[in-house]
Write a structure and sequence with these properties.
Length: 260
Amino acid sequence: MDRFIELLEGSRHCVFLSGAGISTFSGIFDFRGKNGIYRRFDADRIFDIDHFHSSPEYFYSHSREMVFSVGEKEPNFIHNTLAKMETAGMIKTLITQNIDMLHWKAGSRNLIEIHGSARENTCLSCGKKYSYEHVAKVVNNGRVPECVSCGGLIKPDIVFFGEMLDEGTITKAMIESSLADLFVVIGSSLVVQPAASLPLCSIRNKGKLVIVNDMPTPLDEYAYLRYNDLEDVFRKLEKHFFRGQLQAEQKDESSIKEKL
């Protein structure tokens, strides 16, 4: 951990890539972990764009738990630590494969959501935009969301299997990755392209790769440092960089409890 902390303190352009593994601490299932979505649902079918067009009710009924209940979920200590690190200037860019909006909720703003998110939803007929709150209310009442203007089908701004990634978004992610002298992968199995190739953009430009994930990844052999325990790593980062903040927050919590 001392070596990792030294890298973070010495980095001029640090980029993080986050995957679904970090959101398990907020009660959201990852995809390929031991309790992941792939063991419970056919996620390839749920997020298939052709199947969405032919059976939108299948997507909305099966995605309710993993997409349209995340508004009730809160960022965990990993999301919060990353946001604090960005504010402190330690992280230049956070790239995420996640669609759960928790980085945004935590306060990360130099954020690239390469698979989009449900923060915005679009009518496929007229292009009218809808908020997450509007669509979630309809979906959680057991209905397929339709446009109030034209009656068209509403789709979340998530990149489905079979859809092209937004060209501007992925180009920005590749540029940021190429600039990174330190690239840190957290909670990702690095099997979904093109996100899985982003660390190589850094390595080709002499950047160092750090991987924190509880399962092996295809890029482990390229990692300068490799850790298995996300919680342990981030508790130590939190303690090292934000000890004073933590103590102040704990003091505030104690004071509130005393008043109550």
